[in-house]
Amino acid sequence: MPVKNEKTEAEMAADIVRDAGGKVVGRTRLQKMAYLLEISGLGCGFPFEYRHYGPFSEELANAVVNAQIADLITEEERMATWGGFYSIFKTTPGAGPANSNVNAARKQILDLGMEANPISLELAATAAFLAAEGNSEPWAETRHRKPEKAAKYLDDAKALYAQLRSIKTPKPLPAIP
Amino acid sequence: MEVVEKRLGEDSVEGTKKRTALAAALVHDLGHGPYSHAFEEVGKRFNLPMAKHETVTDLLIREGEVCTALNELGSGFASDVANVIKKSGPANIYGAVVSSQLDADRLDYMQRDRLMTGTYHGVIDFNWLLSNLEVGQVPYGADDESVGEIETFVLGPKAIYAAEAYLLGLYQLYETVYFHKATRGAEKLFTELLARIITLAQDGSTSNTGLSASHPIIRFAKRPDDLQCTLALDDSVISGALSMMKNSKDPLISDFSGRLRDRDLLKCIDISESLNQKLGLKTSAKSNRSKKSKAVVPSATASKQKNSTAEEKQRVDSLDKACYAVEKRLLEYKEGNRSEIPQLLLDKPPERSIYRPFEESKGPLNQIMIRPGFGDDKPIDVASLSQVIKAIAPFKAFRVYMKDGDKKTKKAVDQIIEEEAKRCR
């Protein structure tokens, strides 16, 4: 739990949920939104690495656990129709009231992330990660790594990414041909 | 791969994919640096790409002598192998050989680490597990969205006890080997030591490290993006340099290298264990294990079990809150009492489930699936058939390391533990 700036990582994780409207459905959605904030210069310094589900931050996952311990957010697990479980994160009063001064670009990214299909969001974040790592064909590589998901959701992911890139962020999201 | 061929039929298994999976299983960890995960921790702190074993593994497979050897098996073979590893997970049955709940790596390292450490814990019935390994279809998804089904390894119904031993053994190895307090204490010293050397070398103060400018550690510190500088590092290079580091002018380097060389490790205080005792919890002294001891009581009535589960949740919540509060205060204490040699080293690794995490959502790929042998016989989570597995809570640890005989720091830590335990009672 390294203390960065003035906030703890738990507080920064709770801020993401709060700035997304106080409720985030899904761990994948939370991780990918946090990654997109990070590479657009609107994050809090969580480091990300490539995992099975694309960019993932163990530090963020840990911060989410700590945010629950600190009574900043709650996590409710529900059974998904496909047989697994997904999580719903909600802020508690301990996280403070909604922040009316949220950076506009941060809010736009979170709004798009909240509306997106989680698989499209995962593919868009994966392509962004690959592009940031210097891959010359991020979409092709994303399709290669996630063929089943790409078959159905890649076009949607590309459209989502185009919308994300149109947001004026401190660091532009990488261009993906 | 023999299991895959046996279950799917030899004709269904593509020769190239089979060879690719086997080669990938063999070389997927080539890129680990000295002291493996502790080295990666240093890399994270300084954002060093070559300290990530995935990056180095990929480069080794795509370039150089490994690449040449692999390509003798076919043009582009090395690239295919690297691509399987990059997919990072059980994308299909071939990927499952390399990375899944029952992958070759895990089945191998559990046996190897037992042998190398000399422990008698964590024994697995490897042959029985292999004999009962099958290929099955399991659903997967992302959050609340379904993706479809995926082919992966599942166990046959006769493997239930072997699965119990496998998972319980893994859990025991967490405590007795991988996260043993002495292992972690040494890793903490190594991380701080290497971090300090890199800082000094990058600041132009190599002469204070005790190492010459041409030493592989210094060369790596100055050129962390250079693959050859990374490959020049291994365990023996580090351990062989400890005596030179001992003569460093820098207090931390001199002290920590001497401790590692002479195995004079820092004293460990188990914070969660101390809090567990101070909170007056009636269950097993080891906080992680208490769920097991409760869940296997055969005579417990349903109502007693319900109360027991609620009590257990309350116990875990209290302990988590107390640990979190203590961690915050210890970090503040450390910040307020900075010295050349840190008085405290905190160790709170992320909790570890006995299942290997692949999905961010919980699902079959994050579980060991077993064909129950009854009903529709579709693979189900082995924990739903085994009270023993169901009761294994994730492994958690929270420890602090300090110099033996440092009464001031010990008193401060004890006081923080006492106060936070009182607050959480």
Overview of the molecule:
The complex is a heterodimer of chains A (177) and B (425). Chain A is α+β, with helices and mostly antiparallel strands and 177 residues long. Chain A has one domain (9-165). Chain A contains seven helices and five strands. Chain A has helices at 9-19, 27-39, 58-69, 104-115, 118-132, 138-145, 147-165; strands spanning 23-25, 49-51, 54-56, 73-79, 85-91. A three-stranded antiparallel β-sheet of chain A has the order 1-5-4. In chain A, a hairpin with a 5-residue loop joins strand 4 and strand 5. Chain B is mainly alpha-helical. Among the domains of chain B are: 2-99, no CATH class; 267-424, no CATH class. Helix content of chain B is 55%, strand content 8%. Chain B contains 20 helices and seven strands. Chain B has helices at 2-8, 15-27, 36-46, 53-62, 64-71, 77-86, 93-98, 104-117, 126-131, 160-178, 181-202, 216-222, 227-231, 235-246, 251-262, 271-278, 290-295, 302-336, 387-390, 407-424, and strands at 133-142, 145-155, 267-270, 345-347, 369-370, 380-381, 399-402. In chain B, the strands form three sheets. In chain B, strands 3-7-4 form a three-stranded antiparallel β-sheet, sandwiched between helices. Chain B has a two-stranded antiparallel ribbon with strand order 1-2. In chain B, helix 11 (181-202) packs across helix 12.
Sequence of secondary-structure elements of chain B? HHHHHHHHHEEHHHHHHEHHHEEEHEH
- The helix/strand series of chain A, from N terminus to C terminus, equals HEHEEHEEHHHH
- Overall strand count of chain A: 5
Largest interface: A-B, 44 and 41 residues
Cα separation of the termini of chain A: 38 Å
Strand proportion of chain A, as a percent range, falls in 5-15%
Q: State Rg of chain A.
A: 16 Å
Taken from the alpha-carbon principal axes, the silhouette of chain B is flat
- Structural class of chain A, by secondary structure, is alpha+beta
Give me the side-by-side strand order of the main sheet of chain A: 1-5-4
Q: Which of globular, elongated, flat, extended, rod-shaped describes the shape of chain A? A: globular
Low-confidence stretches of chain A: 1-5
Task: Give the number of domains of chain A.
Answer: 1
* Class from secondary-structure proportions of chain B: mainly alpha
Distance between the termini of chain B: 54 Å
Number of strands of chain B: 7
